[in-house]
Amino acid sequence: APTVGVLALQGDTAEHLRVLGGLGVPAVPVLRPEDLDRVDGLILPGGESTTMSKLAARYELVEPLRKHIGEGMPAYGTCAGMILLADRIVEGSADQETLGGLDVTVRRNAFGRQTESFEGRIDMDGLDGEPFDAVFIRAPWVESVGGGVRVLGQIAGGERAGRIVAVRQGGLLATSFHPELTGDPRIHRLFVDMVKGQA
Ligand code: GLN
Fold first, then answer.
1. Ligand 1 centroid distance, CA of 39 (Å)
2. Domains, the chain, ranges and CATH?
3. Where does L-glutamine bind (predicted)?
4. Is this model's pTM higher than 0.80 or not?
5. Which of 78, 96, 140, 179 could bridge across to 92 with cysteines, CB 3.0–4.6 Å?
């Protein structure tokens, strides 16, 4: 079975490790560059993307992460993790550095103050069964996507209808929301299948 790493700089690393454990997938926290040599795929959790970027620099993880992602290591970013994977950010801090790899423009804190946190049902392309109950916490959305990026999920109704909240580009997956918080393992299972080369 493949081993999936979860970036452990900051954010909800433990929740992702718990979901992977529940699926019977070997999962380890990633905090040092050499940890990356032992994993077949990596989850970048939610949290605070500027803090995570700064910690990644301090732990000398920026170049190793870019190298592994550039060489095709599958990666899944949730919320702040999506921001880290994005090639471009709007509303970022001036000095905010991303890892990149995903040909999208992401808007940070896009949903605005009144709806900083909310839940919604997302009809996700590639998931069998019911729409996905998604929790958004000061979430970004994907403002625009490059040619190789598949949109997997959009907000269905209301004033944010059509906003893109889940994307995939080859081995890179990203969601604006937090599937590690709601007990539905389908997106983690999809990512594990991607790591196995089966999705
Ligand atoms: N607003 C956070 C950021 O910009 C992301 C929030 C989250 O990961 N829940 O980094």
1. 25
2. 4-195 (3.40.50.880)
3. 47-49, 108, 137-138
4. yes
5. 96
> Is the shortest distance between the CB of 83 and ligand 1 below 6 Å?
yes
Task: Provide ipTM, 2 decimals.
Answer: 0.94
Which atom from ligand 1 is nearest to the alpha carbon of 79? 8
3-state percent helix, strand, coil for the chain, nearest multiple of 5? 30, 30, 40
Which residue stretches of the chain have pLDDT < 70?
92, 94-95, 114-115
Mutate to test the pocket of ligand 1, among 10, 53, 83, 143 (most ligand atoms within 8 A of CB): 83
Residue 77 makes CB contacts below 8 A (sequence gap 6+) with 43, 44, 83, 84, 85, 102, 172, 173, 174, 175
Cα–Cα distance between 12 and 38 in angstroms, integer? 21
Residue 95, pLDDT score = 67
Residue whose tokens read 């990203």:
174
